[in-house]
Design a protein that fits this description.
EC 5.1.1.7; DAP_epimerase_AS; 4 helices; 18-stranded mixed β-sheet; diaminopimelate epimerase activity; about 15% helix
Length: about 300
């Protein structure tokens, strides 16, 4: 039997990068091992998440299935939602699309500026059992968790927020002053987080300006994490560190966050980029580029 070759897009939102498959006409399910091999940056294509665009059972524009680099499936990815929103808007010719995800229905719409997309991520979940946490906390703005000696912890009392996936945010004076690559793996799987968590270091350096560094669950250090940016915007506003409208600066660039008071929804706005088109042999996992990206106006889902 001949092996199957499938086309894909390589995209990123502020450096948070994805391989995108169009599986609306031809279903695609890959094992976690295959996903991890494709996601390996040394031997595979390399990505933070793998995105599979499928038909929506609810009749909206598409369903977005998300797998992390390690092959595990997750419910939400804000930057990927912006990227898929852009593709669907260009394909359908609309300025607003609805995407079904494991975290619910998300709305993406065109935003001023080339390749800018805004996503309505819905309301944050801030109760301990919604995040979820393994034990009850009356106030999730600062939960009991620390790294280091009891009397002199290195990191302590993070805020906890769920934006489709769990986040823990440590407020620090310098996001580069801590070895997040060492602490991240320990905290990601800490027993207080029964579903694991994304771990962030955040610093408010000017009025409504936040610097953010993220260890992403199932991925590691990442240039950008959209749901982490949303979570830190909510956490900062809850703790009166900022207003409800902030700019979050990630290694991959800035992203605008607004936590609307009118309906409790979080809006996220930032750039999207198509890096290149490619194809993969699903038996050998050999892949090659077949076209360039935004420089040549590539814009189809497949």
């Amino acid at each position: 039997m001949a092996s199957e070759t499938r086309p894909f897009l390589k995209m990123n939102g502020l450096g948070n990068d994805f391989v995108v498959w169009d599986a609306r006409e031809q279903p695609l399910r890959l094992s976690s091992d295959v996903i991890a091999r494709l996601g390996d940056r040394e031997s595979g294509i390399g990505f933070d998440q793998m995105i599979t665009v499928e038909r929506s059972s609810l009749g909206v524009d598409a369903f977005m299935r998300i797998h992390n680099q390690n092959g595990g499936e997750v419910s939400a990815c804000g930057n990927a939602t912006r990227c898929i929103g852009r593709l669907l808007m260009e394909e359908i010719g609309k300025d607003l699309v609805t995407i079904e995800t494991g975290a619910g229905l998300l709305h993406a719409f065109d935003s001023p500026g080339p390749r800018n997309v805004t996503v309505d991520m819905g309301p944050p979940r801030i109760r301990w059992d919604e995040i979820p946490l393994a034990e009850e906390f009356a106030d999730t703005r600062a939960i009991e968790l620390q790294i280091g000696p009891i009397d002199d912890p290195v990191l302590h009392t993070p805020a906890a927020v769920n934006m489709g996936n769990p986040h823990a945010i440590f407020w620090v004076d310098d996001v580069e002053g801590y070895e997040l690559e060492r602490f991240g793996p320990l905290l990601e799987l800490h027993p207080i987080f029964p579903e694991g968590a994304n771990i962030s270091l955040a610093h408010v350096f000017e009025e409504d300006q936040i610097r953010l560094k993220v260890w992403e669950r199932g991925v590691g250090l990442t240039l950008a994490c959209g749901t982490a940016a949303c979570a830190v915007g909510v956490a900062a506003a809850r703790d009166t560190k900022t207003s409800r409208r902030t700019t979050v600066h990630l290694p991959g660039g800035p992203i605008g966050i607004e936590w609307r008071e009118s309906d409790d929804h979080v809006l996220m706005t930032g750039l999207t980029e198509i890096e290149f088109e490619g194809e993969v042999d699903l038996e050998s996992l050999e892949w090659r580029k077949t076209g360039s990206g935004d420089a040549s106006a590539a814009g189809a889902v497949s």
